[in-house]
Amino acid sequence: MRNADFVPPSPRTDTRRRPVSVVAALACACLTAAGCAGDGGQSPAAGPGAATRTGSPSPSSPPSSTAPSAPATSPSAEPLPRGPLTGRTVVIDPGHNPGNREHTREINSQVDIGTGRKECDTTGTATDSGYAEARFTLDVSRRLRTLLEEQGAEVVLTQDGDRPFGPCVDERARIGNKERADAVVSVHADGSATGNRGFHVILPAAVDGGGADTAKIVTPSRELGVRIAGNFVRATGSAASNYIGGGTGLDTRDDLGGLNLSTVPKVFVECGNMRDPEDAALLTSAGWRQKAALGIAGGISSYLKK
To answer: What share of the chain is helix, strand, coil (3-state, %, to 5)?
Structure first.
């Protein structure tokens, strides 16, 4: 089946927006679910296999952890519509980059993640049919951007298909910090074994070492993650992971630079397992990807309006 990616022009000049209804209530206080993948790869349990802005530096920027981010740009001077999220800034982080596969040397370079060093990024996973995680994350992120902008939020993407690779995981964190974002969400899909199904939300652990100190963001990030998980269940009908998180839909990790280095509330959302045929059928459906974006947007909106 042909994948219908949602790819509006970037930068966009058409600022027309349609009203959207977004789920805002938690589905439940305790969810069934689990796990999540890393800054750029599989989870530890994985098997083989108003204006829109971007916070990305120019495509020619090196992947060095010391490379500064270029100023965010506004493709349109038209103000965002006023809504319940007016005055709020959300950073959306599409996991990986479709061009990473052509830049293995750059993305394999080591960067500081606060508690050690790790690869700049990875290529991400893919379905058995070849639908790449990087395509999935960018598609869902663009849908999510539209939904949040319709509620008045200012949205910044860490990359929008506008650079050849990256950004590195440390730079992704810096973009959210620089924007002083009210919430940051990194969109991913897992690459675990067949039979492992469902979504999970990754939360930052309490980390204090090197350049990392998550003490101030652990509690608000957990609240953001719980609200996203509840809304994701309602919007998509998907169950929480059956292989990570012990049936909670939540997983806490201390090995992800994107979380360790964040100074603002941030979570990762693993929307499903691309290596499982049943989950892959959902992830490759444009209709389901819209539901995923609605679920994430509903959680963010609920968190920001609390």
So the answer is: 30, 15, 55
- pLDDT in the model for residue 132: 98
How do residues 234-274 score in pLDDT, each as one tens digit? 999 999 999 999 999 999 999 999 999 999 999 999 999 99
Exactly one of 102, 133, 270, 278 is catalytic; name it.
Answer: 270
> What is the CA angle 107-95-211, rounded to 5?
65
Contact 162, 57 (CB under 8 A): no
> What is the distance, to the nearest Å, from the Cα of residue 31 to the centroid of all Cα atoms in its chain?
20
pTM for this predicted structure = 0.80
Residue 184 half-sphere exposure toward CB, CA atoms < 13 A: 29
Structure-token match 């439940």, residue found: 28
In angstroms, the CA 120 to CA 166 distance is 8
Cα 21 to Cα 283, 294, 298, distances in angstroms:
22, 9, 9
Q: Tell me whether residue 211 is exposed, middle or buried, using C-beta atoms within 10 angstroms of its C-beta: 0 to 12, 13 to 18, 19 or more.
A: middle
pLDDT one-digit tens code per residue, 182-209? 999 999 999 999 999 999 999 999 999 8
Q: Residues with Cβ < 8 Å from 79, sequence gap 6 or more?
A: 50, 51
Q: Residue 119 is inside which H or E element, if any?
A: strand 117-119
Q: Which residues of 44-70 are buried (b: 16+ CB within 10 A; e: fewer)?
A: ebbbebbbbbbbbbeeebebebebebe
- Judged by DSSP in three states, 179 sits in helix
C-alpha–C-alpha distance, residues 140 and 283, integer Å: 10
Name the strand (E) or helix (H) holding 271: strand 266-273
- Count other Cβ atoms within 10 Å, centred on residue 281: 14
Q: Is 270 a catalytic residue?
A: yes
What angle, 0 to 180 degrees and rounded to 10, lies between the N-to-C axes of helices 218-236 and 286-304?
140
- What the block records as the tokens of 248 is 């909670």
